[in-house]
C-alpha cells in the first residue's frame, strides 16, 4: 500500500472514531437529561395522572404522552444548558490544551450538539407536543375499532390538518411581508425558510409571554416568601419594647 493511501486510510479511520465518540457522548448526555426530566415530571405530576387510570388503553396512551413530554422537556433543558456547556468546554480546552483526556470537548462536538438541539426542538415543537395533546384527547373515528391504533390514526389526521393550516398561515404571512414573487408561488424553500421562520415566530411569542408573565411571577414569589419567612428583629428598639412591657405589667397589676 502506498504511503498516500495509508495516510488517507488513517485519516478516515480517525474521522470514523471521532464520529463514533461524538455519537456515544451525545447519546449519554441525552439519556442523562431524559432520566432527569422523567424524575422531574413524575415528581410534580398529580397522583391521578398516568398511574390512576384503570383502563389499559388509557394507561398506555398516558404512558406514551408521558414519554413524549419527557423527551420534549429533555430537549428544552439541553437547549438551555448548551450555551453554558459550550463556554465551559472552551475554557477547559484553553486551560488544558495538552491534556489527552479532555480533547473530546472540541468544536465538532459542540457543533453537532447545536445541530441536534435545533433538529429535535423543531421536531418537538411541530410534531411531538401537538401529537401528545391530540393523542390524549382522541377516541378514534366513529365506526372504527377501539384501540391504540384508532387513536393514532385520528391523531395523525388531526395533526396533518393542523400542519397544513399552520403552513398556509405562514405562507400567507410571508407573502404579505415579502415583496418577492417567488415566495408567493411555491413552498420550494420550506426547510431553509419557512420552518426557521415559523420557529422564530413561536420563539418570539414565547419571549413576549415570558416578559409578560415574569413581573407577576416575581411579585407572587416575593409575596409568598414574605409570608413564609420571619422578619428580622435586628433594627427594633429594645428599650421601647421593654417600656411597653413594663406598662402592660403595670396595667395588669392594677386590674388585679
TrEMBL record:
Gene Ontology terms describing biological process: receptor-mediated endocytosis; Wnt signaling pathway
Keyword annotations from UniProtKB, A to Z: Cell membrane, Endocytosis, Endoplasmic reticulum, Membrane, Receptor, Transmembrane, Transmembrane helix, Wnt signaling pathway
Record bears the keyword Cell membrane: yes
Record InterPro entries: LIMR, LMBR1-like_membr_prot
Main location class: membrane
Transmembrane segments: 24-44, 64-88, 113-136, 157-177, 197-224
Gene Ontology cellular component list: endoplasmic reticulum membrane; plasma membrane
Domain of life: Eukaryota
Location of the protein in the cell: Cell membrane; Endoplasmic reticulum membrane
GO molecular function: transmembrane signaling receptor activity
Membrane topology reported for the UniProt record: Multi-pass membrane protein
Family: Belongs to the LIMR family.
Protein name as annotated: LMBRL protein
Organism whose genome encodes this protein: Chionis minor
Amino acid at each position: 500500500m502506498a504511503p498516500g493511501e495509508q495516510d488517507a486510510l488513517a485519516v478516515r479511520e480517525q474521522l470514523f472514531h471521532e464520529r463514533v465518540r461524538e455519537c456515544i457522548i451525545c447519546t449519554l448526555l441525552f439519556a442523562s437529561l431524559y432520566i432527569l426530566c422523567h424524575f422531574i415530571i413524575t415528581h410534580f405530576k398529580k397522583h391521578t395522572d398516568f398511574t390512576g387510570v384503570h383502563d389499559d388503553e388509557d394507561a398506555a396512551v398516558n404512558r406514551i404522552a408521558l414519554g413524549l413530554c419527557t423527551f420534549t422537556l429533555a430537549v428544552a433543558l439541553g437547549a438551555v444548558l448548551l450555551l453554558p456547556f459550550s463556554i465551559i468546554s472552551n475554557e477547559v480546552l484553553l486551560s488544558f490544551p495538552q491534556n489527552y483526556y479532555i480533547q473530546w470537548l472540541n468544536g465538532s462536538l459542540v457543533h453537532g450538539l447545536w445541530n441536534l438541539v435545533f433538529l429535535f426542538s423543531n421536531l418537538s415543537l411541530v410534531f411531538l407536543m401537538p401529537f401528545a395533546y391530540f393523542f390524549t384527547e382522541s377516541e378514534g373515528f366513529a365506526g372504527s375499532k377501539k384501540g391504540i391504533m384508532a387513536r393514532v390514526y385520528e391523531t395523525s389526521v388531526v395533526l396533518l390538518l393542523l400542519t397544513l393550516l399552520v403552513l398556509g398561515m405562514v405562507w400567507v404571512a410571508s407573502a404579505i411581508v415579502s415583496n418577492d414573487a417567488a415566495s408567493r408561488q411555491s413552498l420550494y424553500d420550506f426547510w431553509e425558510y419557512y420552518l426557521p421562520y415559523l420557529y422564530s415566530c413561536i420563539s418570539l411569542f414565547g419571549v413576549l409571554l415570558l416578559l409578560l408573565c415574569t413581573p407577576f411571577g416575581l411579585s407572587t414569589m416575593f409575596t409568598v416568601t414574605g409570608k413564609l419567612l420571619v422578619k428580622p428583629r435586628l433594627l427594633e428598639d429594645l428599650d421601647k419594647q421593654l417600656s411597653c412591657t413594663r406598662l402592660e405589667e403595670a396595667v395588669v397589676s392594677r386590674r388585679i
